[in-house]
Design brief:
It is built from 22 helices and 26 strands. The strands form 7 sheets. Strands 7, 8, 9, 11 and 12 form a 5-stranded antiparallel sheet that branches. It has a 5-stranded mixed sheet with strand order 18-24-23-20-21. It is of the alpha+beta class. Helix 14 runs antiparallel to helix 15, helix 15 packs antiparallel against helix 16 and helix 16 packs parallel to helix 18. The protein folds into 3 domains: 118 residues, no CATH class; 269 residues, Immunoglobulin-like, CATH 2.60.40; 153 residues, Serine Threonine Protein Phosphatase 5, Tetratricopeptide repeat. The protein is globular.
């Protein structure tokens, strides 16, 4: 058990490093040949962020996994064993290398013809002007364009050999001009486009039709080269990168040490939603969140005739590079065959909440589905201002429905006895009601009697204003809760921005908050099925314990002490809480209080090691070295490889003049961790004393 606990502690210590440490980037030349060749293959389709991440990977195993994921996110038919995009891209690349290198010292994929063949595939038709009198060798490739990619229905690419030598170059009407296509072009005015066009039309009529514009037959005003040409070229270059979200690549880099390799190739995008609410019953601040993956793999359990998936949620809150709070929960889902189609159509969302201390933080929610080995990540900034006496808006949430729950249970997005059902996408049908919650903290009687909330709902074509007087709601200094509804049919389908203003009686604005939502023209919107876990307020001591741990991590000793005490007094029999409080007290030299509370562990065999260690550390801190030695030795009988215990025991031996024993113990500690400079210094001091 001790070894298992030690492993967990070590994992918790290294997770921040694994999650947020910077990676060393290598150059492309330093890569093994296999991966240099791969970067050539994807040169025209890889995003800059993807390339950046690839060059930061540490070994071939990671690179192979990344390449697998790279192709997977581009697979047009992910449910089949074939990846048509990858196969077609490789075919085009190989064709370009084999057939489009003529007259060039470079590989075929690097030529202009090779580039556009890879990007667009084979032309619908090719018109060749090779051996035509008065015309440099030229080819015109005709394509049908994809409107969704911003391309015209029909366009042409012109390639020519400049001065009849070298490789075929892409012709640019504005830069090269029709004169560059004609042998006698040097003797003509390059800016007289009308004359050049007519001259070229005499020799090659169809070539003239694409010499000023990529749209065949389009004659621009004044015969000036069309400004659309550059736009079309940029759309062609951009096309294979459209719709590719590079977040999978950055998540691959950041989570490769945390998420197992079989998950890394299955990143799934997700929608997320967070809200900060001051709980009116507890008076504590909570982060509420919802995360809904956009794709869910589901399995079938035949003995019970049920479908299922299993999510693990890892939540971490960090201040810069330091994680101040972290926890993990499991959320198994089971569905009857009757609702499986609804699950597939609407998806699932996982909701939870946790107490938070004041400050600015980065919230990271890592979601893993063991079915399909998929993972999602949702990140957002969380800002809870320092406690201030003035009133402020401390919550703005939109939902599509409310449900009633027991006031003695804490649930995400629940205020007193009403829980808002939310959709992370904030999309509503035109038949639903929009339920909104506004929380206002630190309300005084004067503001409650005379203050008001004004709400502006602004769409692209309309503005709606609502007014609510605070005295129309039950007075609560901790949190005044406004829960109201707006029928969606009062708003036309549109994207809206809701701004909430808090005013005093003299029209002075105290605070404001914003959010956005969408009214869909659809009569029915499928909202995700929600999975939550009930938290009874009879266990609220755990909330104070969470706050205490957070304060301890940022070094706010007094606030941590207050919350540890609250948690302890609410439930002195919660042994894990006693242990956390005990180590905190010892670290902050509150030895007498540590010795008091630790007696709660004395009779529990499961926690005897922590009992003897905390007691030994506290006694050593008080200078009672002999008593400390006795307790530390008892702890060492249970687990003899704890560095904290060995160091404390060695120090106590040193203080009592037992130098030989001190050396033996401290050397054992250094064998477990040789990088302890203070212990090395103490060993040196003991040797000099001897």
């Amino acid at each position: 058990m001790r070894i298992k606990i030690l492993k967990i502690i070590i994992l918790l210590l290294i997770i921040p490093y694994l999650l947020f440490s910077s990676e060393k980037k290598i150059t492309e030349k330093e890569l093994p040949k296999k991966y240099r060749e791969w970067l050539k293959l994807v040169h025209y389709i890889i995003l800059p962020q993807e390339r950046e991440v690839f060059l930061k990977l540490n070994n071939d195993r990671e690179r192979d996994l990344f390449i697998e994921t790279f192709w997977k996110v581009r697979d047009p038919t992910p449910g089949t064993p074939e990846n048509e995009f990858r196969e077609e891209h490789i075919r085009r690349f190989n064709y370009a290398n084999k057939y489009l290198r003529r007259g060039s010292p470079r590989e075929g994929w690097m030529t202009d013809m090779g580039k556009f063949y890879i990007l667009l595939g084979p032309p619908v038709s090719i018109e060749r002007f090779e051996g035509v009198k008065g015309i440099y060798p030229t080819q015109v490739w005709y394509y049908y364009g994809d409107k969704e990619k911003g391309l015209p229905p029909h366009f042409a690419l012109v390639f020519y050999k400049k001065g009849e030598v070298g490789e075929y170059k892409l012709y640019d009407p504005a830069v090269d001009g029709p004169a560059s296509l004609m042998v006698e072009g040097k003797r003509l005015d390059p800016m007289d486009y009308e004359t050049l066009y007519e001259k070229l039309r005499e020799m090659a009529p169809t070539l003239a039709l694409v010499s000023l514009s990529m749209i065949p037959g389009e004659i621009p005003y004044g015969y000036q080269p069309s400004t659309r040409n550059n736009i079309i070229i940029s759309k062609i270059l951009e096309a294979p990168k459209r719709g590719i979200n590079p977040s999978y690549a950055t998540h691959f880099l950041r989570f490769k040490g945390v998420v197992t390799t079989d998950y890394l190739t299955n990143y799934v995008e997700s929608d997320g939603y967070t809200a900060l609410i001051t709980d009116p019953v507890l008076g504590l601040n909570f982060v509420h969140f919802s995360i809904a993956p956009k794709k869910i793999s589901i399995d079938y359990y035949e003995p019970k005739d049920k479908y299922f998936c299993n999510f693990k949620v890892n939540v971490s809150l960090r201040k810069k590079d330091k994680i101040i709070f972290q926890y993990t929960k499991n959320y198994p889902f089971y569905f009857s065959p009757e609702i499986i189609e609804k699950v597939k159509a609407n998806g699932l969302s996982i909701e939870d909440s946790f107490p938070i201390i004041e400050g600015n933080y980065k919230l990271t929610i890592l979601l893993q589905n063991s079915v399909g080995k998929e993972f999602s990540v949702y990140e957002t900034d969380v800002n809870l201002p320092e406690n201030a006496p003035h009133p402020r808006i401390c919550g703005l949430i939109l939902g599509y429905k409310t449900e009633y729950y027991d006031v003695n249970n804490h649930l995400p997005f629940k205020i007193v006895n009403k829980k808002l059902l939310i959709d992370p996408k904030n999309i509503f049908s035109n038949k639903e009601e929009i339920v909104f919650f506004i929380g206002i903290s630190n309300i005084n009687k004067k503001l409650w009697e005379r203050g008001r909330v004004e709400i502006s709902i602004k769409g692209t074509k309309s503005i709606k204003t609502l007014l609510f007087k605070l005295k129309n709601y039950p007075y609560n200094r901790t949190l005044l809760s406004l829960i109201e509804t707006i029928p969606s049919n009062k708003l036309v389908p549109d994207l809206y921005e809701m701004t909430v203003y808090l005013f005093e009686e003299d029209k002075k604005m105290i605070d404001k908050r914003k959010t956005t939502f969408i009214i869909s023209p659809a009569e029915i919107i499928g909202h995700p099925i929600v999975k939550i876990k009930n938290f009874p307020l009879s266990s609220k001591f755990l909330m104070y314990l969470m706050l205490a741990d957070q304060y301890a991590k940022i070094g706010a000793v007094n606030n941590a002490m207050v919350n540890y005490e609250k948690a302890y007094k609410l439930n002195p029999n919660y042994k894990k809480g006693v242990i956390r409080y005990g180590y905190f007290l010892v670290k902050n030299k509150k030895y007498d209080r540590a010795l008091e509370i630790i007696e709660n562990l004395k009779e529990d065999e499961k926690y005897r090691f922590d009992y003897f260690l905390i007691k030994g550390l506290a006694l050593a801190g008080k200078g009672k070295y002999s008593e400390a030695i006795n307790n530390l030795l008892e702890g060492n009988k249970i687990y003899n490889s704890d560095i904290r215990l060995l160091n404390a025991l060695g120090f106590c031996y040193f203080k009592t003049g037992q130098l030989k024993e001190a050396l033996n113990v401290l050397k054992a500690s250094l064998s477990l961790n040789p990088k302890q400079e203070k212990i090395k210094k103490l060993v040196k001091e003991i040797k000099e004393t001897k």
